[in-house]
Write a structure and sequence with these properties.
The protein is an alpha/beta fold and 730 residues long. Helix content is 39%, strand content 16%. The chain is built from 23 helices and 21 strands. It has a 7-stranded mixed β-sheet with strand order 3-14-16-15-17-19-18, with helices on both faces. The protein has a 4-stranded antiparallel β-sheet with strand order 5-4-13-7, with no helix packed on it. It has a 4-stranded parallel β-sheet with strand order 8-9-10-12, sandwiched between helices. A hairpin with a 2-residue loop joins strand 20 (669-672) and strand 21. Helix 20 packs parallel to helix 23 (701-724). It starts with a helix and ends in a 6-residue tail after the last helix. Residues 1-29 have low confidence and may be disordered.
C-alpha cells in the first residue's frame, strides 16, 4: 500500500470515528489531573443498562418477604452490598440502627368480629390474605394482616362509616347527627395518609379504627377481574402500613439511633397511636356494612362498589350486636440496616451526589420498593462497567443508598441523615430518590425542588420511549409521552413536575439537610391497586405491569443520566431562576387568598413580598453576571460558584422548625400537618391560617401572633437566601 493510500485510510478512519463520537456524544474531552478521562457517559448508560438484568435482580429480591428488622432484612442488605462491590464501587457497607419497630404477635391473629346479643362471634375476619399463586414456602414467612404501631387491646362498640376519615368527613357526620364518640369507625383507604386517619379518628372520639379499600378505588373493572387475572385488588387483599405520623425512630426523635443515643420510653412518645386499628379486605368490609341499620344512609359520593347499602350508623341492624376489634400488635426494639455504596469522585471527592431507594417491604414488595432497588443495582453495575472499561470516574463522589425500615416511617434514611447531617449539610449536592420505579406503564411522573425540575425534564428527553405504541404515534422519548399525558398548564409543551411532599426517603434530605431532591418513576392514572399487599409480587411486575421490564429500564436510564449530569457537570445544572418564579407565583396565590384577612388582623405580606422580589433580582444577577461569564478553567472560581448553588437551598431551613412542628424545618416545602403524604407551599403559614379559620385577632390572639412571627421568619430567610448569591456581606 502506498503512502498516499495509507494517509487516505488514516484520514478516513479518523473521520469515521470522529463523526461516530460526535453522533453519540462520547469522546475524550480531557484527562483530569488525577489521570482519569472525562467522558459524556450518558449515551454509554443508555446502551449499558439492561432490562434483563433488572428482571433478574427483581426476581431475587422478591423471592421472600423482607420486612425490616427480620432475618431477610439483613440478608438482603448484605446481598445489595455484595452487588455494589462486585460492580466496582470503592466502598460498600451495611449500617445498622437499633430502633422501635412493630409486628403482629407471633402465632396470634388480629381480628375484627361481629358479636351477637349472646356475646358470640357471628363473623370473624380471616386475618390473612390467601396466597393466589404464592409459593407455600414463601407464603409461610408472610406476616398476618396488621398496621404497624397500632394500639393493642380489645374494644367493642357500634360501627360508624366515616368515608376517608378526614376532618371534613367527620364534620359531615356531625351535620347529619352522627356522633362517633365511643364508637368504632370504618374508614376507606385513600385521600390522606393512613396514620392521619387514625389521629383524626381519635380526636373525634373513636375508640377503634377498621381500614379497608373499596373496590370503587382499587377494583374498577369488577370484583371478578382482579389479581392474578389483572392488577386490580382481590376482595381479600389487605393493605398493610405504618400508622406513625412522624418520621424517624420513635424513641430517638431529632437524633440518630446510634449506640450512645438517649432513648425515650415508649409511653413518652405522644405520636404513637393509642387506639387499636386493623385493616381488612373489602369482602369482609361488605359484611360489616350489611350489619348496619340504614336509618342514616351515606351521602351519594360516599357510596362505593360493594354489594350492600352504605349506611352511616351507629345503629346496628340487629339490636345489641356490636363490633369487636382484637389487636395484639406489639412494638419491639429491632435492628435494621442501610446499605451505602460509594464511587469516589476524581476532582471534587468531597461533594456528594446521592441516589436512594428503600429496600424493606411489607411482603414481597415487587413494585414498592423492589422495582427501585433492582433498578439502582443495575445503575451501579452500569456505572461500574463504564469506570472499569474507560478509565473514567465522576467529577464528584456518587453515593448509593439502600434504606432499611422506610415502611415504618422513613427510619433508615432519617437515622442516617441525622447521624451525618453536619457533613451532608456542607457536602451534599442533591438527592435523587426512586421509591417505586414502576407503579404503572402509562407515563413518567416526577416531583422535584424547583432547581431540579429542569434536570428531570432534560434527562427525560434523552431516554428512548419504552412503549412501542407511543413510538409508533411519533413520541420517541420518555419526555414526549410525559408531556402528552401530564402537561404543564403554565408551560405549553412541557410536562408537569410536581412539588415534593412526604412519604418517602427524600424527606430527610429535603427537610433536615436542605438538599435539593427529586422523586420519579413510571405510573398509571392512579396508584397500583395491590400496593402494600401480598399480591405486589414478581408475577405482578413481570406478567401484568411491565412485560420485558422496559419501563424499569427507562427509569434506570433516567436515574443514571440525571445523576451523571449532577456528578460530572463542571457547573451544577441548577435552575435558580425557576426557584424565583416559583416563589413569586406561590406568594401571589397566598396574597390573592389571604391578603385582606391579614390586613384586617394587623398582619401583612409586605416584607414577604419584598424578600421574594429581592430573591428574584439576586437570581437574575447571579445568572447573568456570574453563571454566564464564569471562567470554567479556574478551579477556585468553579468551586466558589458551585458552593453558592449547593448552599442556596439550605437558607430555607429554619433550625427552630415550623410553628408547633420543630421537627419540620423547610419554610417553603414541608409535609402537610393534615396529611403526611401531601405537601403545602409555605406549610407553616398555611397551617396557621387553616387553624385560625375565620377568627379575628380579638378572638384568637395567640394564633395571630404566631402568624405574624412566622411571616417575619419567612421574609428573613428568603432575604438571606437572596443575599447568599452576592459577594457582599450586606
Amino acid at each position: 500500500m502506498g503512502n498516499k493510500s495509507i494517509a487516505l485510510l488514516l484520514a478516513t478512519t479518523s473521520a469515521v470515528f470522529f463523526v461516530f463520537g460526535a453522533l453519540i456524544g462520547v469522546y475524550v474531552i480531557e484527562e483530569n489531573k488525577n489521570g482519569f478521562v472525562t467522558l459524556n457517559i450518558k449515551p454509554l448508560l443508555i446502551d449499558e443498562i439492561s432490562a434483563e438484568k433488572i428482571s433478574a435482580n427483581l426476581k431475587h429480591l422478591t423471592s421472600v418477604p423482607h420486612v425490616a428488622g427480620t432475618e431477610q432484612d439483613l440478608l438482603q442488605a448484605e446481598w445489595v452490598r455484595d452487588r455494589f462491590l462486585e460492580s466496582g464501587l470503592d466502598e460498600a457497607h451495611t449500617v445498622p440502627y437499633d430502633v422501635l419497630l412493630s409486628y403482629p404477635r407471633h402465632g396470634v391473629v388480629n381480628t375484627v368480629q361481629l358479636i351477637d346479643e349472646k356475646n358470640q362471634a357471628n363473623f370473624t375476619t380471616a386475618g390473612r390474605q390467601p396466597p393466589l399463586g404464592t409459593p407455600q414456602d414463601s407464603y409461610d414467612k408472610v406476616l398476618m394482616n396488621f398496621n404497624a404501631y397500632s394500639g393493642n387491646g380489645i374494644v367493642e362498640g357500634n360501627i360508624v362509616y366515616a368515608y376517608y376519615g378526614r376532618d371534613v368527613d367527620y364534620e359531615e357526620l356531625q351535620k347529619r347527627g352522627v356522633n362517633v364518640t365511643g364508637h368504632v369507625v370504618l374508614v376507606r383507604y385513600g385521600a390522606i395518609f393512613r396514620g392521619s386517619k387514625v389521629v383524626i379518628a381519635a380526636k373525634w372520639g373513636a375508640i377503634g379504627v377498621i381500614l379497608f379499600t373499596d373496590p370503587k378505588d382499587k377494583a374498577k373493572e369488577g370484583r371478578n377481574f382482579t389479581f392474578p387475572d389483572s392488577w386490580w385488588l382481590p376482595g381479600m387483599g389487605v393493605e398493610s402500613g405504618s400508622l406513625y405520623v412522624v418520621d424517624g425512630d420513635p424513641l430517638t426523635p431529632a437524633y440518630p439511633a446510634i449506640e450512645s443515643a438517649f432513648r425515650l420510653k415508649e409511653e413518652e412518645q405522644a405520636n404513637l397511636p393509642r387506639i387499636p386499628v386493623q385493616p381488612i379486605g373489602y369482602d369482609e368490609a361488605e359484611i360489616l356494612l350489611r350489619s348496619m341499620s340504614c336509618e342514616n344512609p351515606a351521602p351519594p359520593e360516599w357510596v362505593g362498589f360493594l354489594d350492600t347499602n352504605y349506611c352511616l350508623g351507629p345503629k346496628p341492624l340487629n339490636p345489641d350486636w356490636k363490633v369487636r376489634i382484637n389487636v395484639s400488635t406489639t412494638n419491639e426494639m429491632r435492628r435494621t440496616y442501610n446499605t451505602i455504596g460509594i464511587l469516589r469522585g476524581s476532582v471534587e471527592e468531597d461533594r456528594y451526589v446521592l441516589l436512594g431507594n428503600h429496600r424493606d417491604a411489607w411482603t414481597f414488595g415487587a413494585l414498592d420498593p423492589s422495582s427501585g432497588t433492582a433498578s439502582m443495582i443495575e445503575v451501579v453495575r452500569a456505572l461500574g462497567h463504564i469506570k472499569n472499561n474507560n478509565n473514567w470516574r465522576p467529577r464528584r463522589t456518587m453515593v448509593f443508598c439502600s434504606w432499611g425500615a422506610e415502611e415504618f416511617g422513613l427510619i433508615g434514611s432519617y437515622e442516617w441523615t441525622q447521624q451525618f447531617a453536619k457533613v451532608l449539610s456542607q457536602r451534599a449536592v442533591a438527592y435523587l430518590n426512586v421509591d417505586v420505579a414502576v407503579g404503572g406503564n402509562q407515563t413518567l411522573r416526577g416531583s422535584a425542588y424547583p432547581m431540579l425540575k429542569k434536570l428531570l425534564i432534560e434527562s427525560s428527553k434523552l431516554v428512548p420511549n419504552p412503549n412501542a405504541a407511543e413510538i409508533a404515534a411519533g413520541r420517541k422519548t420518555v419526555f414526549d409521552t410525559w408531556a402528552k399525558n401530564s402537561p404543564d398548564a403554565n408551560n405549553p409543551g412541557q410536562p408537569a413536575v410536581g412539588n415534593m411532599g412526604g412519604g418517602s426517603d427524600f424527606a430527610p434530605f429535603a427537610y433536615v439537610v436542605g438538599a435539593p431532591t427529586t422523586d420519579f418513576g413510571y405510573t398509571a392514572p392512579s396508584s397500583y391497586p395491590t400496593y402494600h399487599t401480598l399480591y405486589d409480587n414478581y408475577q405482578l411486575a413481570s406478567e401484568i405491569v411491565d412485560r420485558g421490564f422496559v419501563h424499569h429500564q427507562a427509569v434506570a436510564r433516567m436515574w443514571a443520566i440525571s445523576a451523571a449530569d449532577l456528578a460530572d457537570a463542571t457547573i451544577l445544572p441548577f435552575d435558580i431562576k425557576s426557584y424565583a418564579a416559583f416563589l413569586n407565583d406561590s406568594l401571589t396565590a397566598l396574597e390573592d387568598k389571604y391578603d385582606e384577612q391579614l390586613q384586617q388582623n394587623n398582619a401583612t405580606f409586605k416584607y414577604f413580598r419584598a424578600s421574594v422580589d429581592s430573591f428574584s433580582k439576586a437570581t437574575n444577577d447571579f445568572s447573568e453576571k456570574t453563571l454566564d461569564t464564569i471562567n470554567v478553567e479556574d478551579p477556585l472560581e468553579v468551586r466558589r460558584v458551585n458552593d453558592r448553588l449547593v448552599q442556596l437551598e439550605r437558607f430555607f431551613i429554619d433550625p427552630k422548625g415550623l410553628p408547633d412542628r420543630p421537627e419540620t424545618n423547610h419554610i417553603v416545602f414541608s409535609v402537610s400537618a393534615n396529611n403526611a403524604y401531601g405537601s403545602d407551599t409555605f406549610a407553616g403559614l398555611v397551617d396557621l391560617l387553616f387553624e385560625v379559620g375565620n377568627k379575628t385577632e380579638a378572638q384568637d390572639s395567640v394564633t395571630w401572633n404566631k402568624i405574624r412571627q412566622h411571616l417575619s421568619v419567612i421574609a428573613f430567610l428568603i432575604g438571606e437566601a437572596a443575599r447568599s448569591l452576592s459577594d457582599n456581606l450586606w
